[in-house]
Design goal:
alpha/beta, Rossmann fold, five-stranded parallel sheet, about 50% helix
Length: about 160
């Protein structure tokens, strides 16, 4: 019998698909505990690569730390919006923002393991096959790297 006290992990980026996934999760798992996760990529990583390639270092370190702090703040705000939406839908939700160090799917798997999620829920961006190849297919990556159930909620237009 599944442990109904384990949380639902909801991936959230504040897109229409992610917002729809939150409401569907609340319908499928009424009253469940949830962790609403936003995985963010720091601008610092892009800036550091570009500036080191150009041989510029030193004074930019402080600017990159400021960018990182601003990115963390924005990511936390997105996670909090998702948790608020989940709460309004009837879930007992906590926000979580995680800085991406590697691949998004591995970050999601790490948090799922940490909270012992019973299921990972995410929305679909409804990309065509070529767009999915070009943009990486986040949900596809999570689906194939996870050892937990993964629920990909299609957008409203396909229902």
């Amino acid at each position: 019998m599944p442990d109904l006290h384990r949380p639902v992990l909801i991936c959230f980026d504040d897109s229409p698909g992610a917002r729809h996934a939150v409401t569907e999760a609340a319908t499928l798992f009424p009253g469940a505990a949830a962790v609403v996760l936003h995985v963010w990529r720091p601008l610092e990583a892009t800036a550091a690569y570009r500036y080191s390639a150009a041989g510029v270092t030193g004074a930019l370190d402080e600017q990159m730390r400021e960018l990182d702090a601003a990115g963390q703040e924005a990511a936390q705000a997105i996670a909090e919006r998702g948790a608020e939406l989940a709460g309004e839908a009837g879930l007992s939700a906590e926000p979580r923002a995680v800085k991406l160090d590697d691949h998004e799917d591995l970050a999601v798997r790490s948090v799922a393991d940490e909270v012992d999620a019973r299921v990972i829920v995410m929305g679909s961006r409804q990309l065509g096959p070529l767009q999915a190849i070009a943009l990486g297919g986040f949900s596809h990556g999570v689906l194939h790297s996870s050892d937990r159930p993964v629920l990909i909620v299609p957008g409203r237009e396909t229902q």
